Amino acid sequence: MRVNEIFCSLQGEGYHTGTPAVFIRLSGCNLHCPFCDTDHTAHRDMSALQIAEEATRHTPRIAIITGGEPSMQPLEELVDTLHNKGFRVHIETNGTLPLPDSLDWVTLSPKDLFLGPQASPTIGTADELKLLFDGVHEPHPYSHIATRHRFLQPVTTGQPARDITLAQQAAEYCIQYPGWRLSLQTHRYINIR
Questions:
Q1: Which residues partner with 182 through β-bridges?
Q2: Could you give the count of Cα atoms lying within 13 Å of 164 in the half-sphere of its Cβ?
Q3: How many Å apart are CA 46 and CA 159, to the nearest integer?
Q4: pLDDT digits (tens, 9 = 90+) for 161-189
Q5: How far apart (Å, rounded) are the C-alpha atoms in residues 125 and 118?
Q6: Nearest residue to 28 via CA among 60, 85, 56, 67
Q7: Catalytic residue IDs
Q8: pLDDT for 101-110, tens place per residue?
Q9: How far is CA 167 from the centre of its chain?
Q10: Max intra-chain CA distance, the chain
Q11: Cα 178 to chain center, whole Å?
């Protein structure tokens, strides 16, 4: 598998904000979002066992597989190996490709608002839906996707005044449409990975 990095930190967004986890960032993506902050070319080749063994060097027993788009790579063996090492396995996905049934938590972050219908999610269920908010595109309700939690997350622009405005606008949207909850990238506020 093509691995960008493996590191330990706190989940900075969504339902599990503040939870210690091991992040397994896989390299490569089938979409090209203009706001993406991941280098999709850098990677090292590792087997599922090597990835799981490196993850066990860290204390948390939640592994979050992210990317890029992790579902571009064969995940079944990695999920099974992580389970065998005692991990609860989460994934962060754009939802355009199939996922293994054995995942413990699915965070769906669709990108079709920004990239058009070719980026529409094809999965029908997720534990949480995390929609990026840019202040330009009206959030789509995604009522056809079964999910227990819906989060609206302002994009980070690198311009502090603009970031605050977007967070305020997203908060106002959540107040107006209470089916949504606000998610802030807390790891950026406290300057951790």
A1: 152
A2: 2
A3: 37
A4: 999 999 999 999 999 999 999 999 887 77
A5: 19
A6: 67
A7: 23, 29, 33, 36-38, 92, 187
A8: 999 999 999 9
A9: 19
A10: 47
A11: 22
> What phi and psi, each to the nearest 5 degrees, are found at residue 76?
-55, -50
| Overall average pLDDT of the 8-18 stretch | 96
Q: Which residues contact 116 (CB under 8 A, 6 or more apart)?
A: none
Coil, strand, or helix at residue 4?
strand
Q: Which single residue is written with the structure tokens 């605050």?
A: 164
Residue 45 has which token pair? Answer: 């080749």
pTM: 0.94
Q: What is the rounded end-to-end Cα distance, in angstroms, of the chain?
A: 22
pLDDT over 70 (residue 1)? yes
Check whether 37 has a pLDDT greater than 70: no
In what side-by-side order are the strands of the sheet with 125-133? 44-45, 2-10, 20-26, 62-66, 88-93, 105-108, 125-133, 146-154, 181-182
191: three-class secondary structure by DSSP: coil
Alpha-carbon distance of 22 to 64, in angstroms, equals 6
Q: What is the pLDDT of residues 99-153, one digit of tens each?
A: 999 999 999 999 999 899 999 999 999 999 999 999 999 998 899 999 999 999 9
